[in-house]
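Page header: ASSEMBLY MODEL / two components / 639 residues total.
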Amino acid sequence: MTVDRARGTTLRPSVLLGAVVTVLVVSMLGLTIGPTSISPLDALQEVGSHLPLLHIRSPLPPAQAAIVWDLRFPRVVLALLVGGLLALCGGSYQGVFRNPLADPYLLGVAAGAGFGATLAIVAGLHSGGGGSSDLIPLAAFAGALTAVAITYAVGATGDSRRSSASLLLAGVAITSLLTAMQTFVQQRETDTIREVYSWILGRLTTAGWHDVVLVLPYAVVSSTVLLAHRRTLDVLSVGDDEAATLGLHTNRVRAIVVVAASLGTAAAVSVSGLIGFVGIIVPHTIRLLGGASYRVILPLSLLLGGAFLVGADIVARTALAPAEVPIGVITAFFGAPFFVLVLRTRRVVAT
Amino acid sequence: MTGRVCCEGVTIRLGGQRIVAEVAVDVPAGGWVSIVGPNGAGKTTLLRAVAGLIPYEGTIEVAGSSMASLSSRARARTVAVVPQDPIVPLGLKVLDYVLLGRTSHISRFGIEGVRDLAVARDVLQQLELSPLAQRRIETLSGGERQRTVLARALAQEAPVLLLDEPTTALDIGHQQEVLDLVDELRRDRGLTVLSTMHDLTLAAQYAESLVLLDRGAVVTSGTPDVVLTEDNLSRYYGARVRVVRDGGTIVIVPLRSSIQTDQLDRDGVVLDDVHTDVDAEARTGRHL
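Prediction written out in full:
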């Protein structure tokens, strides 16, 4: 019987390997492409020379070595973290709310972070501008988490059949409120519009390892928790009621996933601004190509979301060099047509 | 696996309204009881309470433990539910869907093990779904889909099976197929079955006893003969029917208001118990 060998859907090792290779290849491109062209081998050796126990000597002169190690490499790692987190959190939100339109900014994260960042930018301007750039990520992070906390406090109900919809609607309300407050502050301080606007469009700064260190702990916690729920999200796909009859404590699961995803999103947003589209397009593309199981969607979102953002960042840095296009513009500009393409070609199979 | 279901004095309020009042239902281990009654009588609500999905007053004991005291995991190992209108997750494969039934046997962050897979394969085989194991659920026909939902419930390995209108979406052949299957499984595995049913003829054929619910209260219960009388059906359903005994089973024949009873006689149906009128009095009595 062939059927006796039938297995449940799991992430196949070959697919996982393919995703890892994609990440490595794109990262390598991120290290080598730029105004100063550096060969992949040199870039590898430079990176290797910083790793302990390897005893590799970098062939690059100090200036180029600094470009690789201090500028490009941290930026690649940051893009991997931010893109991976946004895609992973977006996929988790879609699962936990059973809503294909869910994105990581759903519960007020974006508006809260935007408000926090705007306040920090305005405050920085008043205090002479100096220390504001350090303050922005913290203010954005605090704003994002506060917004989600308010949304949850307002929207969560005991009735598990209603709580999904009411959370989403509370998110809409809190988003409008905070966006209004953010716009108000921004209009009062017109000098800051440019900086605020550039933050909102999203960008990856070249600030050494500072931002990476800032995001990393949250990224680890958030991804661990979310990946641990990959099977649980599959169970939730039959709806709260049926999931409960299957033995799931649905409200608790939703709370844990929402907290973990919000933490991850807030951390990503605090260093990168509001990079749109990654969180919605990457998980959906994976879903269309690789099936509906979250055991496939979540790990691949983490990897390929990162690769997607590194790729987008390469375009953002080089398209109009030496000027930089906001990365959010790139993710949408290339992401949307690609997504439509996948949607069109796979629809026949899906229905 | 003995799973007696015993409800006593069960009252359920939803949104401040009393939907079910002081209901007693007893399903012996290995038995099949069907809850019947008109739309809005509280059948599904009662079933949801037995499944532990909604709060209730009174006692509901399943396999010796009170539903209210069990964790959701322990509940799922005791009672498996086939919902009336199951949500079909797009893109999920049949085998994956059936494996969802193993949730209460898998640790919180775990993944299915060898035994879970073996149980799922067994169930698929028993329900003749093995060839469809790798198909996406949304591509199945209605009958196949209903069997798949049943397979998920069986994968829970719970002693009690709750079926909420298991045949509503099926044609008559598939209705029989599903109910025969449930009956066979009940005998094979000693399952206790509590179902709600709209089709009274089928309810009478498969269940050992019926509970007639009207406006949240049990109005009568017992064997199909006792419950499914023309009088009861006209009083509680407001239905014009003829109850016909065909061999050992009961057949409920709906009557059109214009149809003459002797027409039926001429067509050769054997009538045990002829009530010619439409029981208009009983119906008016109900609405008073």
